[in-house]
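Hey, can you fold this one?
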Amino acid sequence: MTLKQLEAFYWAATCRSFAIAASRLNISVSSLSKRLAELESVIGSELFSRSARNAILTPLGEQLLPHARDLLRSADDFLQRAADSVPLAGRCRFGVGELSSMTWMPRLIADIRREYPNLLVEPRVGVGEEVELGLEDGELDFGIIGGPSTRASITSVLIGQAEFEWVASPGAARDARWLPPAALRDHTLVALPNSSGVIRIVDDWMTAQGVSPGRNLRCNGWGAVAGMLREGLGIGILPTAWARVLVERGELAFLEQFPAPQPLSYTIQWRRDDTRPLLACMRDLAQRCIDFHAPCCLM
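Sure. Predicted structure:
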């Protein structure tokens, strides 16, 4: 029995498909199947019940999975102690929200490439729910999104926060500077969809103010939200740095009577059962790079 066979068994059992497990291990599906077959030959029994459409764990496979996890965790601990002399290599897939991708993600990738040149970085941009699903399914190694995860299988570590301001175009609201929060009832709220972590702070704000919008206009992209606000289609929040740029240009105005929403905490997340040294290294880099005050890609 080899460590590679145990890895094949563990990831095949915990990823959504053999294809995802193989991709995570940087091998082909046929190689994954070969390792599984070799392990089953050593054990003398099947670990998966295979059908034409899928493969599920046998009772023995279910019984052995926690032990495989413990063995791999011990191997990870061994590698962690040797991390200073063993450079990170292979593929690193991570997911971020659009706000991170348009501000500090390029710097994060640059730092990863400089410090770990043998690591192939593959970023993915999506709303928080999509990133969490990618983590659970085994498609992503880690994610950086707004708010802690509510999923028991995912670990979240706080790394920073983003601040926001209420804005509207001069044509969307007369005397926008003096518009009271209660006026939201007469306007359209332009915002990200409910699957975004940003909506949590908007909902908390509306609850605190005791108001709700007359209408909602939702889109899953910050660029589109900013564009619709500039076109006067409603009022909404934007990251503070971006809002200031657009206000200075005269394209938007701050709603000065609207209290600023609470900052949104950002966390780095990974599967609780994943103890590879890679994740501690990425967490340290993310904490060093995170900065939402530079609108490098929006304007």
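The chain has eleven helices and twelve strands. Let me know if you want another pass with a different chain boundary.
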